[in-house]
Specification:
By secondary structure, the protein is mainly α. The chain has one domain. Helix content is 71%, strand content 10%. The protein is built from three helices and two strands. A hairpin with a 5-residue loop joins β1 and β2. The longest helix has 55 residues. 12% of the residues are buried. About 3% of the residues have low confidence.
């Protein structure tokens, strides 16, 4: 079930990002005098893509933890951190699907996934809102330009 939700979220994100990029690209081609540049949105799109990759990695980690068993398949997970003294530490944790480490790693991955899903959702909504605002500004500008042309033609 979790894989289905993640897949649906990934497809939704991809469609939204594609639509945003397409809209900005079309608007950039229509109005070269615009002060809007797709380069302003690309860092957000790239961050969204990086978050989606991380979400996929977390999903794969959770799957690996779920299929572990003491008899057939055990996994070693490496944790690395930089201490306050500046020393890089590494710790290998053995997960066999039944030990406490497996359960805690699975809980940690699930919590990270939930936070990442919320972050992705906020990024998508932010990009969508920015695109909608830009679209509304463009429509207002076009109406003003078209209204000025009509007045010039009638006057």
């Amino acid at each position: 079930m979790n894989r289905t939700i993640i897949f649906i979220l990934a497809v939704y994100a991809a469609v939204i990002v594609y639509a945003i990029i397409k809209r900005f690209h079309r608007q950039e081609n229509c109005d070269e005098s615009s002060d809007f540049d797709t380069a302003r949105v690309m860092p957000d799109v790239e961050a969204l893509s990086a978050d989606m990759r991380r979400l996929k990695e977390l999903d794969e980690m959770m799957l690996d933890l779920r299929v572990c068993s003491p008899e057939e398949m055990q996994r070693s997970f490496r944790v690395e951190w930089l201490s306050t003294s500046g020393i890089n530490h590494k710790l290998d944790i053995l997960a066999d699907g039944e030990n406490a480490s497996s359960e805690r790693l699975l809980m940690l991955a699930a919590a990270e996934r939930d936070e990442l899903n919320a972050k992705i959702s906020k990024r998508i909504n932010s990009l969508y809102f920015r695109a909608a605002m830009l679209d509304a500004e463009r429509k207002t500008e076009r109406k003003a330009i078209d209204g000025g042309r009509e007045n010039a033609a009638n006057g």
